[in-house]
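Researcher: Next entry: Amine oxidase (Herrania umbratica).
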Amino acid sequence: MATLIRPVEPISDPSAAKIATTKGISIMPRAQTSHPLDPLSAAEISVAVATVRAAGSTPEVRDSMRFIEVVLVEPDKHVVALADAYFFPPFQPSLLPRTRGGPLIPSKLPPRQARLVVYNKRSNETSIWTVELSEVHAATRGGHHRGKVISSKVVPNVQPPMDAMEYAECEAVVKDFPPFQEAMKKRGIEDMELVMVDPWCVGYHSNADAPSRRLAKPLIFCRTESDCPMENGYARPVEGIHVLVDMQNMVVIEFEDRKLVPLPPADPLRNYTAGETRGGVDRSDVKPLQISQPEGPSFRVNGKFIEWQKWNFRIGFTPREGLVIYSVAYVDGNRGRRPVAHRLSFVEMVVPYGDPNDPHYRKNAFDAGEDGLGKNAHSLKKGCDCLGYIKYFDAHFTNFTGGVETIENCVCLHEEDHGILWKHQDWRTGLAEVRRSRRLTVSFVCTVANYEYGFFWHFYQDGKIEAEVKLTGILSLGALQPGETRKYGTTIAPGLYAPVHQHFFVARMDMAVDCKPGEAFNQVVEVNLKVEEPGKDNVHNNAFYAEEELLRSELQAMRDCNPLSARHWIVRNTRNVNRTGQLTGFKLVPGSNCLPLAGSEAKFLRRAAFLKHNLWVTPYAREEMYPGGEFPNQNPRVGEGLATWVKKDRSLEEADIVLWYVFGVTHIPRLEDWPVMPVERIGFMLMPHGFFNCSPAVDVPPSATDLELKDNDIATKPIQNGIIAKL
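Model: Predicted structure:
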């Protein structure tokens, strides 16, 4: 097969050939076909797995290897800058600092590297490997590969994320367990095909949950019809059965039928598929809505590089985070390409439940760190909410046994109409100008058991970036005894209640406002609106003003939202000013938000101390990626991750700034959330604040609808007996 990546020499190689030039334009060979930030290809994943497996000391070790994740080792920022400047379009040499005599450009980029998290099923050990992908073929033949192990280490006292293969095997083991079958017979269920077993990580509540064992504590549900694959099985939770599974050896190690709670009756409103909702009658009055882009989209795609309306950035994807946005910049006229952020992603989410009863008190899912948002992503071939001209991107992962799986159409890129961008009518002349807003949306959707989460990054023509999460799916329910009610949830059907709970998300934003790679010229200020004290400066008692405070160090920068003072935070460049002399910046504007409602001694807060504040700020450190540490599954260590890192209290006065924004929603279930939840949206904005000299949206041209308004009067005629009256 053809070679995808040729052997390359390191950047520091002094023997690198001098680059030929023609009329001042550098001409160089393409040493790599993959940009340094491109996700690993299927071939690269195969080579990385084969390299690690071949390095196993014995056949037993090799056979017991299970591959949790294989991801790109993201290179240093100066390597990315070099690649963007001279190796990959659109070729931006302005990214590199000017040097006397011109830049010294190497002929090749460093080899790409893969990082593997490997679980040894025999020894219950977790190890981390780094493999250099010096030469990658489209298919390995006869076990040959071109990878090189750079490093490997065993990480003690941890459990890596669970895998879908483990979950499927766990379900089968529980359903085949004779005492479990007897317990289900007591509840009137003999057909095990009706039973659904959802394995949940045990978290960490006591030493019994220590990572010396790989454990799962399943939740049990039961469908009513074996021939209906789309039946909502979550409508019949099975309570009173305690099951603990050793996931290493895949055996049930604890079982107890503690309490016989009758199965809830089959709810006639439980299903959500077409023709089976609300009595089996779907709406018939929804007319087609078509989005047409006859000239194609306004965005341009080159590999993973995106350009749209002066924005440009790269798309990445990881098994844990899902979608990653790299190298975000805005092309600002004669000021050229202006960086905004190096890396944007959602790095963790936590879902704590508020019911103290068993089993709900243990429901504290870390859906990124325990399961992986990316590994649970959908193929949008199976249903996509995007309209218009769409560009899809595939995602490649390793499965548990080291094979490569591809999620086709995993990431969706498209444009959306977004209402009014701006408008003004001069009341004296009657003349008006109006512009419609368009935004570019990059998104993916994942399912974690009963819940769906859509993760969206929106780019706007006025320079804003919006991060949005859409929550939908099916409630995680509990069963009630006849006549019983629970104060910690909402009764939504006979024998069914939905516990109160919260959803928290953590966005990690490696900012680079007006900073080229290698520059660390950002700082963060907090802004609060203050009411002026009565007196000579406020004789009319109407005065208020914005008060700024520089967050000088990490401990000072642990902050919470405060809507009463319109609190927000600005990332500023300390050495770049706009036309009024103010420092250029981007501000983080919170949306609706909350903090954990659990008590300070809640067990899940041992692993999720980062939820105690809405904002954390750290200087960039390569190894600081996940707010709860890399391995939150069964983690016994208190406050690992962000809460520990900030104790160093590093300076933030002029630094390479990383924002960690924690945002969440408190869900008090409604009857209207059943059987499937309408989407709830939460998020935040990154908005230019003194970044531009005026509105960047003022040059957006009028759209066809702005220039020619049509009177579609059919919708405004009165209706008589359901028929449009003839006027």
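Model: Note for the record: Residues 42-54 form the longest helix (13 residues).
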